[in-house]
């Protein structure tokens, strides 16, 4: 049982690290602000969620675990709001999103 | 009144969980500070159905569970797009209907859209949300409006 | 394992910092800084476990809240040049 929890927390933390790095790569690769918001979403939900979940498994049932849950709850409540504010401010500041099918455009 | 009591209980639970000390002095100080906060909030008239929505709280866990599954699915899709060498994106802006009656439910809907990677709500007017999607397939998925129905079910009372 | 997670988070922070320096618009920079803050919360939490001092989590909690408010404040200041501005939605809500 203890081994299973240990393995599960390993898997969660490693997967979380992978998703966090993916978001970091995405924020560099994607072409404009509005598409970069999606990359930020990947790190904020899956990356943070899985890493904190892995830490929760390490902590077991204790006050530490409750604090981790609180951190996760705050992150999940605040990150979409912050993302939305960035997008709305950018729209307000006359920044137009790139539209269209890049996939086909880039192949030519 | 019910909302004020529930706010006080929630604050005190938070105090106990964050402090982790159970000496009488600290417990009493906690009660006092929670009472002060509830009194101030009451005077500022910020304890209402928006800041403290106890009427939808019982239905939230089921919705969160469903949302969690959507988030995982969307994350895998976005990760695949970011890591694929050709970067197959087709950014789209669509307007989706937000038929919820209360502002609170609309905000829950808009935040859920943003929380799922691949779709970000960029503007909200009276009953429509402008959504920026990373690919047009993600925009099409959103337009099936399953999420909208679930959020509407949240606010339907009793 | 914690060191792997810490390294991954630090790597992400480096990538995000590059985006913050490249820009090109101020919104890209703010988005990058906000994401940097989220990563800092994670880094503090992981470091707490790495060094065996879980009391670091309180710092992470407070940092997460400050980061959110900081992002909103920076954007609001940039948009209206005034932190006390009522914003465009406030008037609609009064009616």
Give me the strand/helix succession of chain B: HHHEHEEHH
Number of separate structural domains of chain C:
1
Q: Would you identify the regions of chain B where 5 or more consecutive residues have pLDDT less than 50?
A: none
Number of strands of chain B: 3
Quick check: average pLDDT of chain C? 82
Helix content of chain B: 55-70%
Can you tell me about this structure?
The complex is a heterotrimer of chains A (108), B (158) and C (95). Chain A has one domain (2-107). Helices cover 84% and strands 0% of the residues of chain A. Chain A has helices spanning 2-29, 33-59, 63-92, 102-107. The termini of chain A are far apart. With 158 residues, chain B is mainly alpha-helical. Helix content of chain B is 59%, strand content 11%. Chain B starts with a helix and ends with a helix. Chain C has 95 residues and is an all-alpha fold. The longest helix of chain C is centred in the middle third of the chain and has 25 residues, at 26-50. Chain C starts with a helix and ends with a helix.
What structural keywords apply?
heterotrimer, A: mainly alpha, disordered C terminus, C: about 100 residues, mainly alpha, 4 helices, about 0% strand
Summarize this, please?
With 108 residues, chain A is mostly helical. Chain A contains 4 helices and no strands.
């Amino acid at each position: 049982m203890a081994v299973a929890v240990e393995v599960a927390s390993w898997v969660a933390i490693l997967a979380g690290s992978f998703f966090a790095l993916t978001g970091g790569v995405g924020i560099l690769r994607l072409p404009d602000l509005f598409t970069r918001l999606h990359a930020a979403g990947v790190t904020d939900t899956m990356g943070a969620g899985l890493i904190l979940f892995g830490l929760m498994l390490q902590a077991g049932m204790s006050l530490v675990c409750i604090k981790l849950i609180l951190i996760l709850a705050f992150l999940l409540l605040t990150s979409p709001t912050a993302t939305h504010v960035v997008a709305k401010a950018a729209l307000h500041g006359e920044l137009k999103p790139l539209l269209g099918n890049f996939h086909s455009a880039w192949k030519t | 009144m019910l909302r004020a009591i529930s706010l006080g209980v929630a604050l005190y639970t938070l105090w106990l969980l964050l402090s982790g000390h159970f000496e009488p002095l600290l417990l009493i100080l906690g009660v006092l500070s929670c009472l002060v906060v509830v009194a101030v909030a009451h005077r500022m008239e910020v304890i209402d159905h928006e800041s403290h929505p106890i009427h939808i709280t019982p239905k939230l866990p089921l919705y969160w569970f469903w949302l969690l599954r959507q988030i995982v699915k969307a994350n895998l899709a976005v990760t695949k797009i970011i890591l694929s060498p050709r970067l197959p994106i087709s950014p789209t802006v669509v307007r989706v209907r937000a038929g919820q009656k209360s502002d609170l439910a609309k905000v829950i809907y808009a935040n859920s859209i943003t929380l799922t990677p691949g779709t970000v709500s960029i503007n909200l007017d009276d009953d429509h949300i402008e959504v920026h999607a990373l690919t047009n397939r993600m925009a099409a998925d959103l337009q099936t409006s399953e999420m909208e129905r679930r959020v509407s079910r949240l606010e339907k009372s009793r | 394992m914690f060191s792997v997670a810490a390294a991954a988070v630090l790597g992400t922070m480096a990538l995000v910092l590059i985006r913050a320096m490249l820009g090109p618009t101020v919104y890209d920079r703010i988005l990058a800084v906000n994401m940097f803050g989220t990563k800092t919360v994670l880094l503090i939490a992981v470091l707490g476990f790495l060094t065996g001092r879980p009391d670091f989590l309180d710092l992470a909690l407070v940092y997460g809240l400050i980061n959110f408010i900081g992002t909103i404040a920076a954007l609001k200041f940039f948009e209206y040049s005034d932190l006390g501005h009522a914003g465009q939605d406030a008037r609609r809500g009064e009616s």
